[in-house]
Amino acid sequence: MRNLIALALVFVSAVSVAASKVEVVEPQVAEQYNYSADLDIAKVISITSVPDACSVVPIQMTYEDHHGERHILEYNVMGSGCSDQISSL
Length: 89
Hints:
This protein is α+β, with helices and mostly antiparallel strands. About 30% of the residues lie in helices and about 30% in strands. The chain has a domain at about 25-85: Spermidine Synthase, Chain: A, domain 2. The protein has a four-stranded mixed β-sheet, with no helix packed on it. The chain is elongated. The mean pLDDT is about 80.
């Protein structure tokens, strides 16, 4: 019986330690790009794919600056769907 109680205490303390290490990560809001922005891009992590549309569409780039902080930058590009319309003329 003493071993069972000791095992239960070890389990409870292990769960307690694991629960205290859970880190709450807040969702990051994308920054809107403007031409006067002074960007500090040390490493590009990802870029969303360009939609198959024949119009200007927003995409996002996730990057790290030289301080190791992550940023999400949203900017506009021309969609990739216009090439089909040009070739059919």
